[in-house]
Amino acid sequence: MSILSDRLSAEILQARQRVYTVGEPTPLQRLNLPGIQAPVYAKREDLGPIRAYKWRGAFNCMAALSQEARDKGIVAASAGNHAQGVALAARVLNCHATIFMPRSTPEVKQTEVRRHGGRHVKIMLHGDCYDETAAAAHEYTETHGCTFVHPYDDLVTMAGQGTLADEVVMSGEGPFDRAYVAIGGGGLAAGVSTLAKLLNPNVKVIGVEPEGAACMKASLEAGHVVSLPTANTIADGTAVKTPGDKVFPYIRDHVDQIITIPDTELVEAFLDVMEKHKMVVENSGLLSVAALRHLSCQGLNVVCVLSGGNMDVITMASLVQHGLIMRGRIFTFSVLLPDRPGALLSIADILARENGNVIKLEHNQFVNINRQSGVELKVTLEAFGHDHKDRILEALSQAGYQAHEVDTTDFYH
User: What is the gyration radius of the CA atoms in the chain, in angstroms?
Assistant: First the structure.
């Protein structure tokens, strides 16, 4: 281990003495996911005191500060979860925190910040991604002489996140052959990979980034920290354009590989964990689950960190809708019918025989100037998947109807 690794490992040992004053170790849960032929355990950070891992680093960093530094006022920048950790720490340590958050931060995260911090916090909405928000927070810190608590690019913050790896090792479910960890700025992966490698040198640590915000992968390929022009992903907690300078060497030395995940795979991962395990995991937390399909896990003992579960119901509804459509379990077809009594009934009979469940019907007599030449019927159906959907469309074709699939834009109305 290098001098850097020794320093971080020592800080993690100190963090053990602090973080458990506000939270308890989170459990490991065995996952049963379709197509994954390996024992996979989820580190359930969504069950922590703020439903995400960020309480560890935020509290460890703030508890390690002098009283004088805390009395100056804490400033933080966060996409949501670090903000909740800072808010919790501010209340427990009886100090005040001004928290900058992107304008796109889900309302559930803002509400939780206020709930955890109460009178000890003030929220400032600024910017469209973390980097823009952080720039405003740093300017505020310098102007007002406050103390900035970084969400990832700080040794003591990294150490707090590293306590997660200690809990995995002590769980009794190991030793693990592979660990999947999400990367935004890199603090979680730095802390986890450093301690994991210290305690189990044979473990392979896989970092996972959203495809639209893969700043760490770009930096590793360049050999130094680089900034992306944009960060475009539904995984708002990892929408970072520039990884941390202090974090970078730990990722370079201890993370074995980085995988990038498109947003569409996060949608499917959401359905998997919700339907199979009734768990609500936010998009950034799903990165580690989605990555399981990118490398063979056969014969390995695997752990993936579910980094958080703070998601508003509107986002949940959108993910469910898009996921069902992607998997062929909801689809819409359009067909022209003769404008005569019984035409709609004949379509209904075919759908009933094929076990298609009708969600919505739209009967439009005005698709043609001369409605005698045909009226349009649009039907939104529930099916069992793409094979079932294809059988329904084939049955309509065999009956002489020229049905074709069209976009399903919304099935809630």
Answer: 25
